[in-house]
Each structure stands twice: as C-alpha cells, then as structure tokens.
Design goal:
With about 290 residues, the protein is α/β, with parallel strands linked by helices. It has one domain: 3-Layer(aba) Sandwich (Rossmann fold), CATH 3.40.50.200. Helices cover about 35% and strands about 15% of the residues. The protein has nine helices and eleven strands. Helix 3 packs parallel to helix 7, helix 4 packs parallel to helix 5 and helix 8 packs across helix 9. The longest helix has 18 residues. The radius of gyration is 17 Å and the shape is globular.
C-alpha cells in the first residue's frame, strides 16, 4: 500500500485537485520556486521578517521545497502532489544552524510568521519544523499567535517532532493545533516520533518514512520524519475545504480527526481522508 492509499487520500485526490480559493501557509525555509515539478503559479512568497539569514538554497530551502512538493507539486511528478490547485503562501522561518539536516525556528520568528500568514489570508498552516531554545516569555508570544489562528478559525497542522520522547511542546499542547506523528507504510508509528497525551488526543498519524518529493536540484529526494507526515494532513484539510466550501472549520477539523470516541492513547490514529470526505458529504446532503 502506498502512502496516499494508506491515509485514504487517493480517492479524494481523484475528485479534486484543490481550489484556488484555499490557501496554505507554509512556515518553513525558502522554496525553490523554479523547480519544474512545482505548480509555481500557485505559490505566493511572503517576505521574511529576518532578512539575509536564510541562504536561497541551503538545507532549509531543500526541506521546504520537499514539503511544498508533497502539497502542490504537479500531478504526475515524483512527489505526492496532494493539492496542486490550492495556493501556497511561503513564509520562511527556518534557519540553518551549520549542521547538516538540522533546522530550527525561533519562537518569535515563528509567531511573526504565523501572523503574517493569517494576514495574507491562509486557511490552514503547515509547521514542519522544530523550535530553537526558548524562554517562558517566548512561549507566551507563540501561544498568542496560535490563539490568534484559533480566533480566526485557521487550522494549524504541526509536526510532532523526531526526538523519540513522550511529552509535548508549546506547539503540540495548544488545543487548536493538530499534531502529526510519522508512521510507516503499515501505519505503525516510527520509533523516532514524539508522542504524548495531547498528541494522542488531538493528533493524527501520517506517512513519514522515505517520502519521495522534489529536490532543489536534479531528480527526486526523499524526506522522512514528522516533517514529511504533517503535509499529508495539511493537504487533506485543504482538499476537504476545497470540496466542501460551505462546511465550517469545526466540521472539517472534526472530520479530519475522525468522529470517534474519546482517545486515551498517546499515539494518534492514522489519518483517513476518505472517511473524512464521506462524513462531510453525508453532512452536506443531510443539511
């Protein structure tokens, strides 16, 4: 079973590519918009508050380009290309710290990025990142930005993290955030994914092992971890909003999370986008 089939996205993608009226805020590194596999006419670049910090095609750019490919690559490319019909608002917040494969965002920069995406009209935010060190006051600033997303009814999907810990962060414990755990092709959580009570109660699992996507250079590149898993959930939310524009945000969130009993596990269930689609279809027909 491939990644799209595992989470029920294949039949939803057969019905819609996403709507141009739905915008996804990508809080990540800069995206290589000249990548031919990207649906670049759907990409809008938001200016970064901190200039000169992020090289154009450093590791953070490669990471963001792979995440963007999962979301809005052209159908038929090497990437999943979940919702190429949607708009992508790119707001760089990641900084390379000099170690290969290691990227983080400061809480203040992330909070500013969230507010920028909200001001630009995003409907769902994708946070495939980790936080750099932060203080209590930093946490309050970031919580305030997440509170504003909740007030504006803009869904926030965030990677649970890859530190193999049981617990939560200022992001994953926020009640409005949908934390995402990485799973393998059989739906089993990866050993490196963070889990915890808030993640289990309000989160989802999605594919996060060697996900093929777009590179900044020639040929495909694979991405593993909760960074790869989060855009599967973000893309599903964008498709559901596209297919059911009259549905409320609370309805879409409930559909994506699954209308099930109270959860008690620290590991969230695997996303089932097709079940979410069927739920919203039933609700629209009955209404």
């Amino acid at each position: 079973m491939n990644a799209l089939e595992l989470v029920g996205l294949a039949p939803v993608m057969a019905r819609t590519e996403g709507s141009s009226t739905v915008s996804i805020g990508l809080l990540d590194g800069p995206v290589a918009v000249d990548q031919p596999g990207l649906n670049s006419d759907r990409i809008h670049l938001l200016p970064a508050a901190t200039t000169g910090r992020m090289p154009v095609c450093a590791e953070s750019c490669a990471h963001a380009t792979m995440v963007a490919g999962i979301l809005i690559a052209r159908r038929g490319s090497s990437a999943p290309a979940i919702c190429p019909g949607c708009h992508l608002l790119v707001r760089p917040v990641l900084a390379d710290n000099g170690m290969a494969g290691t990227r983080s965002a400061s809480p203040a920069e992330l909070a500013a990025g969230i507010l920028d995406c909200l001001a630009a009209g995003a409907h769902v935010l994708n946070l495939s990142l980790t936080l750099s060190s932060w203080s209590a006051s930093d946490g309050r600033v970031l919580e305030g930005a997440l509170d504003e997303a909740a007030r504006r009814r803009v869904l926030v999907v965030a990677a649970a993290g890859n530190q193999a810990v049981v617990g939560s962060s200022v992001i994953t414990r926020h009640p409005w955030v949908i934390p995402v755990v990485a799973c393998d092709q059989a739906g089993r959580p990866t050993p490196y994914s963070n889990v915890g009570p808030s993640i289990g109660r309000r989160g989802l699992s999605a594919p996060g092992v060697a996900i093929a996507s777009l590179a900044t250079g020639v040929g495909p590149r694979t991405l593993s971890g909760t960074s790869a898993a989060a855009p599967f959930v973000t893309g599903a939310v964008a498709l559901l909003r596209s297919a059911f524009p009259a549905a409320g945000v609370a309805e879409i969130k409930r559909a994506a999370l699954g209308a099930s009993a109270v959860r008690r596990s620290v590991v969230p269930p695997v996303l089932d986008a097709w079940a979410a689609y069927q739920y919203l279809l039933t609700m629209s027909e009955s209404g």
